[in-house]
Amino acid sequence: MDYCRMRAGLRKSLAAGLLSASALAPVAALAQETLEQRLDRLEAMIMQMQARMDAAQGTAAAASPADAAMAREMRAAVAETRAVAAEQGEIRERVARIEADDKKGFRVGATQFTIGGYVKMDAISQRTSGGEVPGDSINRDFLIPSLIPVGGSASGWDTHFHARQSRVILKAETPVGGKTLGGHLELDFLVTSGGDQRVSNSYTPRMRQAFLTYDGWTFGQAWSTFQNVSALPDSVDFVGTMPGTVFVRQPMIRYQAKSGLSFAVEQPETTITNASGGRILPADDKLPDIIVRYDVKGFALAGIVRQLHASAADLGAASGDSAFGYGVSLSGKVPVGDKDDVRFMGTVGQGLGRYMGANIVNDAAIDLDGELDPITTYSGFAAFRHVWNDKLRSNVAGSYFKADNPVALTGAGATDSVWNALANVIYSPVPKLDLGLEYMYAERENEGGASGNLQKVQVTAKYSF
User: Fold this and answer.
1) Is the pLDDT of residue 62 over 60?
2) d(Cα 385, Cα 395) in Å, to the nearest integer?
3) Which one of 164, 215, 238, 454 counts the least CB within 10 Å of its CB?
């Protein structure tokens, strides 16, 4: 065998292999595993070269100093290439982490901030059979069951545009003691004062939610623990099934265990109906509302106990009085097939008035002895969502509310029952953009037998960010 010719061939082959591996290292698109395999093959070539040199010279010790130096250089080149590849792999991982953080928001010191929310425009045309809805009524922006007119003359179709539901959400997360300290601040423009519809249509922003979280604890204003927000239907209207929905945001202290159990003490507020049907807000409550909830596999079971309280002046009696309210709510979201689902809620209780349907009726009435008489209520809703394809979905839903008012105490004007039904179609031509069309029918009846209905057609465009 021509030893010199063999050595020259090995030099040429190995040099080409190292050049190929070195060229591949800076290419970010190359998988690290592929480069490692190439380097492994180069090391195998060096070992083969050493074996051939041993066979040609007799022993490894007899190899010339030049051959041994060449082998060391080749091994050093492979090691250097490995180091470059590892460094570039670390750079790629670092860039990936930075890109992931960018998608999550921005960092200030140790705190990660994210901004979310949506911009939403609603175009609504509605008519009522029992009287005209005032131009500045919130019932023009979204369904408020207790504000459906009854007993009057039918209105025509009234058209109203607004973007007041648009909202901004700022979240923050800071690592503290191996756990995460979180903050949530949320603003929108519903139910606030501001400019008129003639010129500016400007509205004052309001605080929807503001709370902090740490290790299972929540402190601040959030959706009541008695309400299961995840069960709400996919509607174009703000809530959709308001008559049958627990609906309250308020300050609280809540602890949620990993087992799914939640315990909360929340803002107390008693609402009372007087003999003329008016609403009294005593604002001298003694104990917080106490709520226990258990979440499991898409279902939520919540119970509440409340103390209702009013002073002697509020009751028109010689002394103040208190009574207990209580209730239970079962809600959930049940998958149907691959993408469809059924959502539902059922709630029953006594003294729950302000928790139901945006305070359809009050918590209690004042009896003839000047004492509180809690009002019993029943409510619920069901909704079905069908996903036609990746861009199109539709929903049908219905809800019902019933109050057992002591008519002799509340008068005939108190709401006896409300129900509504809706159907919609929502088209998402691109991600984060929803274009919706919805028809809703709602009807309210009071204890005197007067009734009225509301029909509404609503078109919406919503960009979520």
Assistant:
1) no
2) 4
3) 215
Site of tokens 């898409």: 298
- Confidence at residue 69, expressed as pLDDT on a 0 to 100 scale: 72
Q: Are 447 and 151 in contact (CB under 8 A)?
A: no
Contacts of 24 (CB under 8 A, 6+ apart): 30, 34, 35, 38
> Please, which pLDDT band fits residue 216 given cuts at 50, 70 and 90?
very high
Amino acid at 96: A
* 255 close to 235: Cβ distance less than 8 angstroms: no
Q: Give the chain's largest Cα–Cα span.
A: 122
Q: What pLDDT sits at residue 194?
A: 84
Residue 2 has pLDDT above 60, yes or no: no
**What value does the mean pLDDT take over residues 353-368?**
96
The predicted pLDDT at position 18 comes to 47
Phi, then psi, of 22 in degrees rounded to 5: -65, -35
Q: Distance (Å, rounded) from C-alpha 360 to C-alpha 356?
A: 6
Length of the chain: 465
Evaluate if residue 30 carries a pLDDT over 80. no
Ordered DSSP codes for 290-329: EEEEEEETTEEEEEEEEEEEE-HHHHTSSS-EEEEEEEEE
Its sign, for the CA torsion 133, 138, 141, 147, is negative
Report helix angle 32-57 to 3-24, nearest 10: 170
* Cβ neighbour number for residue 354 with a 10 Å cutoff: 23
Which pLDDT belongs to residue 404?
A: 97
The conformation of residue 154, written as its DSSP 8-state character, comes to P
Strands 340-350 vs 299-310: parallel, antiparallel or unpaired: unpaired
Read off the pTM: 0.78
Coil/strand/helix, residue 80:
helix
Of 345, 383, 382, the closest CA to residue 228 belongs to: 345
The per-type count for the chain, helices as H runs and strands as E runs, is: 5, 22
Residue with more model confidence, 158 or 92: 158
- Measured between alpha carbons, how far is 463 from 465 in angstroms, rounded to an integer? 7
Beta-bridge partner residues of 293: 262, 302
Q: For residue 184, which of 225, 231, 220 has the smallest C-alpha distance?
A: 220
Average pLDDT rounded to a whole number, residues 142-165: 96
Pairing mode of beta strands 272-273, 364-366? parallel
Give the chain's domains with CATH numbers. Answer: 3-103 (no CATH), 115-160+224-464 (2.40.160)
